[in-house]
Amino acid sequence: MLKRLIGICFVFLFIGSSVFAQNEVKKRKRIFLNSHDNIVEFTSKKDTVYTATDTLIISKDILVTERDSAISINKVYYTLNRQAVSQKKDTIIRVRVKSVVHADTIPKRNERVLKKVRTYYNKDNLLGKAMKSIFIFDDNRIKTKSLQKEKIATEVANTEPYNDKIVRNINVTVFDPAGSAFLENDKKILRFIGKTANILHINTHQFIIINSLLFSKGKKINSYKVAESERLLRQTGYIYDAKIIVETDLSGDSVDVLVIVQDVWSISASGGLNPSNMVKDLDLKDANLLGLGHQFETGLKLDPSLPGGYNYIAVYNMNNIYNTFCSGQFYYRYEQGIERYGGGVNRDFISPLIKYGGGVNLNWTEPTFRGLSTAVQDYWAGYAYNIHPHDWKGGERFISAIRLVKTTYTSTALVDTLIPNYANNNLYLLSVGYQRKQYYRDSYIYHLGRTEDIPTGALAVATLGRENSIVSQRNYFGFTAAWGEFNRFGYMYGAMGLGGFQREKNWEEAVLSSRVLYFSPLFYYDRWKWRGFVGARYAKGFDQKPGVLTDISGSDGLRGLSSPVLSGNEKFVVNYEADFFPPLNLLSFKAALLAFVDMGWISSAGQLINSKNLYSGYGIGFRFQNEHLTFAMIQVMFVYYPNAANASQHAFELLQSSGFFYNYNNFDYSRPTLVAFN
Q1: How far apart, in whole angstroms, are the C-alpha atoms of residue 368 and residue 339?
Q2: Same structural domain for residues 373 and 449?
Q3: Is residue 593 part of a domain?
Q4: Where does residue 675 fall: left (phi above 0), alpha (psi -120 to 50 degrees), or beta otherwise?
Q5: Residue 605 resides in a domain
Q6: What pLDDT does residue 62 have?
């Protein structure tokens, strides 16, 4: 009862101050309130929401987020909506407002609070986006910042005052996957579904979150580690979004760190039955097994036409084993009568803060071509040297690595000059590379609204190697480079690779490849958003193994088109896509409309660019996904192929897929590799 009385008093105090502020508009033309379309939820640890000098102020301890995101601490909910007032659990205030705060109306005693509000306001994250729904700083010196992208280095600069402070406490708050779209819905069945989903879901354990951080309790904190830890948390497949807040202790010599994450619903399943041929399939996946951050996936397909009558796969992944940033994978596959199994443990250079890398991988296949069984042992180790060890923001470093790949065939009696490609061999590789990497935050690129970390920078790697086998010996030379930049015109990425083996001054299995990708800024029209993508790829192979070809089928060129005719040793592909994002949010399900054009040239000999080598596709479609679930994105596309008859395909196709068509290199570099022919 006391809580309700306090809540009612708070409501009248808030409404009274708002009315007073509206009256002051006529007098001073400084402070005013407007209705706003977005309903924003916020909560404070100390419940320090108050009005002062006719201005709505939120103290530094408050957390402000959007719907279906991390919305509370200590389970106290506050929803802004001016039209209604209700009380659920603790006091809940509903006011739909947008306050315009003029800097010259804030007294000196509130300047520190206002400065903190501005700091969070200028961030493009969970907190900053929600602050923009509440505040607009409307003086001549401050302009509303675009929400499209923010360099992570900017956030690093904002937290630099905490550098060299000792971490006193690390507190973790993990929120359930089903947010207010379900829990506060007017329909009982949806509230029941949300509550049931949260009960069945096992939240990520706090020690798993703490183990994923690049800083620890009792150690000095580094602001770059804070930003990198946020990014690494977002990269996991079981966390929707993450926010790390650093709070200074009153003594000033230590800090408390608050880590806020929201889980996604981690379990997914799919299956099918075709009565005409009795084909049955079932797939199960858990992206956060028992809240441990491990992934398990298994699938079974029963088909009388398959060798053995079935296909089966099982994959188990472990991320960041005991805070070592080592990841393990173990798998078993039985497909098309071929059995593959193995596993490995690797520590990749996933962050500029990691200096040492390496891995051990063992794989077996039986039987393979001509009844041969293979065993592959893969070992590698690397070291990263930071060029500016005291300035982590640039992410500049040199990386050197070595690798040994040992391949053994069980039926060596078959090895002769006719099949030298299947002789036992050892491949030794040494590489030296330069890496410069930073990240921008953006959205509506590969996802439908969640925070995305987009890499920028440069990468250049030179690789030397030698392959020894019982048949012959040959050397390998390779070079790869990549570059990416974000500016007001959009994002531009380019990469190239050149490599091959040399035997007695003759080149073998040589590859020349290049690719470019551009996507535009996010444009707004009323409540709609749209973004454009343009990509191009080129590849050519020289003296490849028999049967080794490139193609322009599917994800390698034209969506939905697949035919042996589309293979050759040289190709050039151009793709364009426009994505439109409507203001649709149905229980956190969002959609995108798309239109695309794919054009590809393929040739085995002679001139590449001519009309007889050209294949094209024109299509429209849509994507649909709830990003609080681990279910794959649903894409449905209707495509027209003008010259499909040349590839023995239908002119019109209705396609369904679950992957995004465009991708880019993350400027990651770990183990030495050969330039791929694709």
Answers
A1: 9
A2: yes
A3: yes
A4: beta
A5: yes
A6: 34
70 shares a domain with 33: yes
For 36-187, list the strands marked E by DSSP: 41-44, 49-52, 55-58, 62-65, 78-79, 98-101, 135-137, 150-151, 166-175
The structure tokens listed for 512 are: 């020349």
| 516 in the same domain as 497 | yes
Q: What is the dihedral of CA 141, 142, 146, 150, to 10 degrees?
A: 90
Same domain, 467 and 496: yes
Q: Is 321 helix (H, G, I), strand (E, B) or coil?
A: helix
Which residues on adjacent β-strands are paired with residue 429? 403, 465
The answer to whether residue 665 is domain-embedded is: no
138 has a pLDDT exceeding 50: no
Cross-strand partners of 544? none
pLDDT in tens, 342-361: 999 999 998 888 899 999 99
Inform me whether the pLDDT recorded for 163 exceeds 90. Answer: no
The span from the CA of 181 to the CA of 375, in Å, is 51
End position of a domain, from candidates 293, 327, 347: 347
What average pLDDT score do residues 424-444 get? 91
Q: What residue ranges in 148-292 does DSSP mark as E strands?
A: 150-151, 166-175, 239-248, 254-263, 267-274, 279-289
CA angle (164 as vertex; 167, 121 as ends), nearest 5: 80
pTM value surpassing 0.70: yes
Assess whether 171 and 137 both reside in one domain: no
Mean model confidence pLDDT for the chain = 75
Q: Which residues contact 603 (CB under 8 A, 6 or more apart)?
A: 568, 569, 570, 571, 613
Domain count, the chain: 4
497 vs 236, higher pLDDT: 497
| Shared-domain flag, residues 473 and 388 | yes
Q: What distance lies between CA 355 and its chain's CA centroid?
A: 23
Using an 8 Å Cβ cutoff, are 394 and 436 in contact?
Answer: yes
Kindly state the average pLDDT of the residues 158-167: 74
Specify the higher pLDDT residue, 427 or 527. Answer: 427
Chain segment 260-315, per-residue pLDDT in tens: 998 888 888 888 887 777 778 899 999 999 999 999 999 999 988 888 888 999 99
Strand order in the sheet with 98-101: 32-34, 98-101, 135-137
Q: Which residues pair with 494 in a beta bridge?
A: 483, 516
- 153-164 per-residue burial string, b: 16 or more CB within 10 A, e: under 16: bebbebbeebee
pLDDT > 80? residue 642? yes
Are 449 and 627 spatial neighbours (Cβ–Cβ below 8 Å)? yes
- Of residues 637 and 411, more confidently modeled: 637
662 within a domain of the structure (yes/no): no
Burial of 9 (0-12, 13-18, 19+ CB in 10 A): exposed
Give the C-alpha separation, 195 to 174, whole Å.
16
Residue 323 lies in domain: 275-347
Structure tokens at 417: 């000059």
Whether the pLDDT of residue 580 is over 90: the answer is yes
More confidently predicted of 378 and 187: 378
DSSP class per residue in 134-174: TEEE-STT--PPPSS-EEHHHHHHHTGGGTT-EEEEEEEEE
Task: Categorize the per-residue pLDDT at 32 as very low, low, confident or very high, splitting at 50, 70 and 90.
Answer: very low
Report the SS3 class of residue 676.
coil
Cβ(262)–Cβ(277) under 8 Å?
no
The span from the CA of 45 to the CA of 62, in Å, is: 6
Whether residue 334 is found in the same domain as residue 290: yes
Lowest mean pLDDT among 71-75, 239-243, 314-318, 596-600: 71-75
Among 532, 601, 548, which Cα is nearest to 573's?
601
- 671, burial (CB in 10 Å: exposed 0-12, middle 13-18, buried 19+): buried
